[in-house]
Amino acid sequence: MKFYLKTLITVAVIAMVAFFVHRQINPTPAIAHLKTYSFLGVAAFLTVAALKFVHFYVPSKLGYAFLALVLVKFGAVVLIFPELIDKDPGLGKAELLGFLVPYFLFLFAEAAIVIKWLNKN
């Protein structure tokens, strides 16, 4: 239980700091900051929690689980943010980067959290 609380706090701090920095850089985004960071924060927490669960039952398949969860998250992004893949996207490079940078920030945070607790074991 302590692990999940610690993970939740870590992800929440990353999301809040990144959210406020991003708002200072781009105050009028094409994709709402709150929607982006809410989705990515929840997805990161659920990914790490699921990986902890998989590690408990089948630790040898943790890499496959991580890959599968990244693909599921990518699929959810396509469903929740359809403007990213429209035929005629109204998003410029700056708006696209405004989504991709936080996406990869959370992806690296997930990997760092998992690597940290794997090294403890």
How does this structure look, described?
It is a single chain. The protein has helices spanning 2-25, 33-57, 62-80, 93-120. By secondary structure, the chain is mainly alpha-helical. Helix 1 runs antiparallel to helix 4 (93-120) and helix 2 (33-57) packs antiparallel against helix 3 (62-80).
Low-confidence stretches: none
Please state the overall shape, judged from the principal axes of the Cα atoms: globular
Please give the radius of gyration in angstroms: 15 Å
From N to C, what is the helix and strand string? Answer: HHHH
Assembly form of the protein: single chain
Helices, by number, come to: 4
Can you describe this structure in just a few lines?
By secondary structure, the chain is mainly alpha-helical. It is built from 4 helices and no strands. The longest helix has 28 residues, at 93-120.
Tags for this model:
121 residues, mainly alpha
What's the topology here?
Layout lengths: L1 H24 L7 H25 L4 H19 L12 H28 L1
